[in-house]
Every structure is written in C-alpha cells, then in structure tokens.
What does this fold into?
Amino acid sequence: GALQLRSGASVNLTGLTITGGANATGDGGGVSAEGAVVVRMTRCDVTGNAAVDGGGVSLVDGEMVLESCTISANVASGSGGGVCVRGAGCSLRMSGVTLSGNSAARGGGLFVGSGSVVASLGTALRANSAAAGRAFDTDGGSAYYERDAGFPPAHYLPNARCVVYRELDGCNATCLAARDECALSPVAAAH
It folds into this structure.
C-alpha cells in the first residue's frame, strides 16, 4: 500500500492526500496500520486506492482516529472498500468523516471484523456498494454512533446485534435476520 505503519508507530498525519496505492495480495491500499500502532489522521483524503481488504484504510490490532477526512472511490476485492477494522483490541474513532463511493465484496464503506468503531460528529456513509453489507458489514465487531452527537438523518451505523446505540431522529431500523445486520431507512421526521 501507499503508507504502511507497523507496531510501535505513533503518527499524526494532517492535510495529506493518499491516492493510487495498491496492495494486490494484502491489506490497506492507501493506509495499512498493523500491530501496536497509534494513528491520528486530520483533514486527509484517501481516494482511489485498492487492496484485498481495506481498499482505503486497513487497521489491524491498533488505534486510529480519523477527523474531518474523506475516504472515497477505494476498492477491496475482499472486505472494507473504504475501511477494514480487525483485531480484538482494535479501536477506530471517526469524527466528521465521509465514506463515499467505495466498493468491496463485503462492507463497501466499512467492514468491522472485530474490535470497535465509534462514529460521531457528522460521520456519513454515502453511495458505497458491496455484495454484502452495502455501506456497512460486520463479522463479530461492533460499531455505533455516540449518543447525542447530532447526526443528520439516515446516517447511522448498526452493531452486530441489530441495535442502534442512539435514538434515531427520523430513521427506522429494520433487522435483516437472515444476515444479522441492519438496513436503515430514512423516514420523515416528526416535528
């Protein structure tokens, strides 16, 4: 991939564009963070990258914070076109992040294999595509929006048990029991 970070790295990246990275046999076409890493990315664009898992960003067993970033037009032949998160101790926090136009076999925008993802302050998944999970897919990890973070309608992440950790102002959540995931449908907000 374009940027590879391994155990022991502690990195702050601000204002970067990461594009054209490829990893035909592994994780993280744009950014690959693996092991005991701590990464903070602020106002970065990760676009037009490709990998097996995590076309834009792959996080395995580390900590990452994404703030005001755009992750778009990335492709994964496996899981997580935009972002792939795996590893029991893995932690991703997203604030003001847009994941759009990414594609994968599972989880076009975001795939959480294990670990946790917390999205807040206007994070949105838009126009991502996948054979399973569309914008979001999980295989044992958990993802949720922080309560009272003030999100726009129709942009909420479910967790693996089909529970949305926030009151859904203007949204309905429908469980697709056959695949243990949620489909989120915008509805007219009651005023």
Residues 67 and 132 are 27 Å apart (CA to CA). The chain has no helices and 24 strands.
